[in-house]
Amino acid sequence: MMQISLQLLLKEIFEGCNVHMTASFQDSLARLDETNIDLIVLDLGIPGSAGVDMIKQLRERQPEVRILVFSARDESMNAPIYLRAGANGFLHKMSSQDEIRTALKTVINDKKYVSSQLQAQMLEALTSNKAIDANSYDGLSPREKEVLHKMLDGDTIKEISESLRMKQSTVSTYKERIMQKMEATNIVDLVRKTLWYID
């Protein structure tokens, strides 16, 4: 139902456009090999999903294509990672139709798009007076680093719980502890500080 609604909306906004729907990420790559595409709306839940590496694979085939990531995952955690990887925008699946319209029009015009709420969080993180202390990352335990990197891969608390075989409540506790040790004001700030260190 979501795909059909999005397809109709694309045709309404971009009159006369051709919309190609694919059943898996591999199908998407194959389509890019044979067709010039202006805009990709990338669902992170697509079968065969390869996480943030999908952006790299798409750009290897068509460097100029615009990519709008469409996901039900935590926007504040995932958007900065995917934008940094080369996506043009990030949109949550629960967004209103008006916001979806705005995102599509913004991205097709070669501009970046994130929600106004996330923009505020990113601005807060960028203007934070707190210096980035490399020792804060070094102070994380091996298990905390493991959880942190799972978070940076875009995994949900449930997914981290399953892959690391720990309770969801334990993962949440680790997340809070990591935020405190990294002195992060919010999730966006945590991503910024971690990426600064591991670069």
Automatic annotation (TrEMBL):
Pfam families: GerE (PF00196), Response_reg (PF00072). Keywords: DNA-binding, Phosphoprotein, Transcription, Transcription regulation. SMART domains: HTH_LUXR, REC. The keyword Ribosomal protein does not apply. Gene3D superfamilies: 3.40.50.2300, Winged helix-like DNA-binding domain superfamily/Winged helix DNA-binding domain (1.10.10.10). It comes from the Bacteria. InterPro entries: CheY-like_superfamily, NreC/VraR/RcsB-like_REC, Sig_transdc_resp-reg_C-effctor, Sig_transdc_resp-reg_receiver, Tscrpt_reg_LuxR_C, WalR-like, WH-like_DNA-bd_sf. GO terms for biological process: phosphorelay signal transduction system; regulation of DNA-templated transcription. This is Two component transcriptional regulator, LuxR family. It comes from Dyadobacter fermentans (strain ATCC 700827 / DSM 18053 / CIP 107007 / KCTC 52180 / NS114).
